[in-house]
User: Fold this.
Amino acid sequence: MSRFVEDVSRTVSPGERVLDAGAGEAPYRLLFRGARYVGLDDGRGDPRWDYTGLNVSGDLLAMPLASASFDHVICTETLEHLSDPQGFLVEVARVLRPGGHLHLSAPLSFKEHQQPHDYFRYTRYGLALLLERAGFEAVSVEPEGGYFRYLGDKIQPAHRYLFAKDRALVWKIVFLILQPFSMLLFTVLLPALCAALDPLDSKRVHTTGFLVTARRPERV
Assistant:
């Protein structure tokens, strides 16, 4: 995900205003050092996170921000946690200046997380529909990898399930010798192989999620 945001940061001119909507601990702040960065979150994500570095604490469905006040909005892996994604995108369009850009990532296949605030998964067509209904144009929805990257993502947890901490002691003793091999195989070797094979899939119908860019029209 950081590569996507790094690419976005190269399109931002010095002095432009950037809103990180659903910023969490604001890990991307330093990528926008030349811009005027604002991190916004409602603080309902991971309870272990430190939200004290946010610029604004508030509801993403009713952002306490002036209309047409940002040149860019970034939103990474947040849309699935919003009970009203359409309303959120309308809010994003409101705070963007005419001609401003939204840069968004959203999952298609990912485990439940940050429960109970995990509501939706998205296809490329669903994302395009939501964005168009919110008034965006020049919508680009690109898959984040193909089948083999998808497979690599799904195979990594296998080691954790095979060697769960709550296994019976007998299981732990019998398979103790296999644990390092399992960790190497499922968390390093197989994911690396899948990443190398991913260019073989040109259709990209199996994917972990999507990377989106869209523009608020110059005239509404």
Summary: The chain has two domains: 2-145+206-215, 148-200.
